[in-house]
Backbone:
């Protein structure tokens, strides 16, 4: 379906009388992926299939990024599906079922994009309609949790370009944000406990009072980040770049793994040198 959507959209760009526009592409996607939420087994299969399509995946990643941008602006076109059902005399789904199907299709779209990004190892540049658009989308994809288990979407945030996004107080517990671009993002009081932020770009990010307990920040770029009163208990910051970061009143820094971290320009620079000199 990803291949077909890409080809149909390209055909439509060449001539508006042929191929699919974005609404049609999203309609087809919703019909395929809306009924059942994707699980980890299917996602693993898709990732493996993308590995076999390396020559095409870069273009598919751009197409899927553009399609998600359209979906966030206009919404999933469930009304088009309704018209087709009415035309064939079928009973319309309830509002609750429609919302569930739209959510499933959106999550599958994100999963397909992430599968592409894992192959290309390049950022996915979705056009967020506003600084709060990504956070609002996450709230739709992740319902109220009843424990530590996440929806599949939380394993699919790696390689996303989220620079400048407002994500205050957001729940990213155990989320996969590996190599995501969070430069200048606002993450005040965000829950990033056990999150995977390996090699993430957090330059200038606002992480004031953020919960980073057990977070995996190996080789993350935290230059000039605001970590005032952030909780770093058990966080792994091995090889992280922390030059000129604000580490005032950081909690439990002494239990974090800072081996190889660059603390130049921070209040903890001398403390860090002494700690690892003793070791």
Residues:
């Amino acid at each position: 379906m990803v291949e077909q959507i890409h080809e149909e959209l390209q055909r439509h760009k060449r001539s508006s009388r042929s191929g699919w526009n974005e609404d049609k592409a999203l309609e087809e996607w919703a019909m395929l992926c809306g009924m059942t939420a994707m699980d980890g087994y299917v996602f693993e299969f898709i990732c493996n299939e993308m590995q076999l399509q390396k020559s095409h995946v870069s273009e598919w990643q751009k197409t899927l990024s553009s399609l998600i941008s359209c979906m966030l602006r206009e919404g999933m076109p469930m009304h088009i599906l309704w018209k087709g059902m009415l035309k064939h005399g079928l009973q319309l789904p309830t509002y609750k079922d429609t919302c569930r199907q739209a959510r499933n299709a959106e999550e599958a779209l994100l999963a397909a994009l992430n599968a592409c990004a894992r192959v290309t190892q390049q950022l996915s540049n979705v056009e967020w309609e506003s600084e709060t658009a990504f956070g609002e989308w996450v709230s739709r994809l992740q319902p109220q949790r009843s424990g530590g288990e996440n929806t599949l979407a939380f394993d699919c945030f790696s390689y996303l370009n989220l620079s400048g996004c407002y994500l205050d107080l957001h729940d990213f517990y155990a989320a996969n944000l590996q190599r995501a671009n969070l430069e200048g993002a606002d993450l005040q009081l965000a829950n990033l406990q056990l999150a995977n932020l390996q090699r993430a770009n957090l330059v200038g990010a606002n992480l004031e009072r953020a919960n980073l307990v057990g977070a995996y920040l190996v080789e993350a770029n935290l230059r000039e980040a605001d970590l005032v009163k952030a909780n770093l208990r058990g966080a792994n910051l091995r090889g992280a770049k922390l030059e000129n970061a604000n580490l005032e009143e950081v909690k439990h820094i002494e239990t974090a793994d800072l081996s190889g971290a660059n603390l130049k320009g921070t209040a903890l620079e001398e403390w860090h040198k002494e700690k690892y000199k003793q070791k």
The chain has two domains: 2-120, 132-143+153-279. The mean pLDDT is 91.
